[in-house]
Design a protein that fits this description.
Blueprint lengths: L1 H32 L3 H22 L3 H27 L4 H30 L1
Helix pairs in contact: 1-2, 1-3, 2-3, 2-4
């Protein structure tokens, strides 16, 4: 039981970092570049997918994967996806479909780039 509690604490600490990173990066894009919140969410999610892929390719220890993959990058992308739901509630059907397709494409490309970067670093 203590091991499960320890793992939950590791995930929790990573999630705190991921949520803080998400908020700071989303609002950083809004403030620095004047980007609309729904577009900064797309950038945040794409970055999160790339960071997840990079870490997934490099990390082998369970505690590190719990912290970075499950905790940090899980909270980073899930938290921003939840915010996106509220932003898209007022969008037209075409905008929603376009945004979802563009998001899925950017996530796939970012994930592939993150894996390639990790392979390059591991050489």
């Amino acid at each position: 039981m203590a091991k499960v509690g320890n793992h939950l604490l590791i995930v929790f600490m990573g999630a705190i970092l991921g949520a803080a990173l998400r908020l700071s990066s989303e609002w950083g894009l809004v403030i620095a570049f004047g980007m609309a919140p729904k577009y900064s969410l797309a950038v945040v999610n794409a970055f999160g997918c790339g960071a997840f892929a990079y870490c997934a390719a490099l990390l082998t220890q369970q505690k590190l994967t719990l912290f970075w993959l499950t905790g940090c990058w899980g909270a980073y992308t899930s938290f921003s996806a939840l915010s996106l739901v509220f932003l898209l509630m007022e969008a037209s059907s075409f905008q929603v479909v376009f945004y979802v397709m563009l998001s899925a494409l950017s996530w796939g490309v970012s994930f592939a780039l993150g894996q390639q970067l990790a392979r390059f670093v591991m050489r």
